[in-house]
Amino acid sequence: MERFLSGHSSCPGCAVALAVRFVLRAVPDDAVVVVAPSCIGPMMGPVPLSSVTVPVFHTAFETSAAAASGLARAYRARGEQATVVCLAGDGGTYDIGLQALSGAAERNEDFIYVCFDNEAYQNTGNQKSSATPWGARTASTPGGKSTRKKELMEIIAAHRIPWAATGSPAHPEDLMAKVRRAGELQGTRFLLITCPCVPGWGIGDDASLRILRLGVEARAVPLYEIEDGTRYRITHEPAGIPVAEYLRPQARFAHLSEADIAAIQAEVDGRWEALVQRAGRGVPGRAPVGEEAGV
Ligand code: SF4
Questions:
Q1: 293 CA distance to ligand 1 centroid (A)?
Q2: 15-278, superfamily in CATH?
Q3: Are strands 163-167 and 224-227 parallel, antiparallel or unpaired?
Q4: What is the pLDDT of residue 223?
Q5: Nearest CA, atom 5, ligand 1
Q6: Are 156 and 190 in contact (CB under 8 A)?
Q7: Could you state, in order of their start, the residue ranges of all structural domains in the chain?
Q8: Which atom of ligand 1 lies at the shortest distance from residue 197's CA?
Q9: Which percentage of the chain shows pLDDT scores above 90?
Q10: pLDDT of residue 265
Q11: Which of 25, 171, 227, 290 lies 20 to 30 angstroms, CA to CA, from 144?
């Protein structure tokens, strides 16, 4: 069912808007949405001109997981059925809202938390967040970010919540299947969706999904899920194209040298191999140890 309608206020070509549409299409019918300050807030629109057909509760940056916890408990106390779905950006999740999210996850509060990760505070003009990758130019890192992107999925997995996953609006069937799966479970469920931002990433308004597909196929944006913080499953097998094909079309990486790109490639390879090991598989395309060394 379509629950996010036309007429909202996102930029043309915004991947967050598309991801919100897919998420709301797949949530249970009794969904109630909590929205943190982000590009998603204005997209919801003011009543009676709202672009969504579900109830929306706007909360403060640092309180989205706390507000979602309270709402879920209030519905339960009243004996009413509702699926609380929290929609937040990377600034509100990786940075400002992480304490409330960690507390709620530790208590295994009953809600679905969705982080739309456009890798900076795009709603306020592209300031870096801890989701911004190394090397990316933002308004507050004009020379390129000097530190790495926070490994949020590992932090979330360490809470041993029932289910967590990554998603992409360029892979809508995978994404909506994950949202439906989250809707069938109880407790804290977490979904991290990577969303290119047209002005922040310095891309054309027709390029978001094409670039995101390149990121997925380059293994820079792996798609997987985690049950109980320990059981990993890769849900899309990437082709393993060079990460340069993902980075070069983005103006925020235009200043990087070949050595910088090689360093990012090594980092991406290392993270992918760690993911493959966690998923309990060999690394595709790699000879077993020993054969590799020619012995
Ligand atoms: S600033 Fe970026 S994330 Fe925000 S609405 Fe525009 S394209 Fe979407």
A1: 48
A2: Thiamin diphosphate (ThDP)-binding fold, Pyr/PP domains (3.40.50.970)
A3: antiparallel
A4: 98
A5: 10
A6: yes
A7: 15-278
A8: 2
A9: 89
A10: 98
A11: 171
